[in-house]
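Look over this entry.
=====
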Amino acid sequence: MKSKVLTLVRFFSVETVGSIVWFPFWWYSKGVTQLIHYFIQTLSYRIKSYSFAIWIQNFFNPMYGQQDITGRIVSVFMRFFVILFRFIALCFEAILYGIATLLWLALPASFTVLLITNILWNR
């Protein structure tokens, strides 16, 4: 009975210490790789959902079947602004993902610095 308890205590302590030691290596290697891969997949999905190719392909086609010159001019300007604002939205989202990646990289280091500063300051 005593060896089972000792084995359990040893197992949990090794798992806990191992997890704490392994965490920074995972965070800066596999974790950041998974995060960047997720962001790339999300941006790829956004590009498809914004359907730039379809908007550009139909750029000079009149909207709603209006064949007069006014309808064509309005259609071109409308499509231009839709493509422009979708591109701006895509760039804004990519910038947010870049900021999130930088925060991901800075979070454990800043936490460690704040922890050590707090420990040394409260002496």
In short: The chain has one domain: 27-121. The radius of gyration is 27 Å. The mean pLDDT is 89.
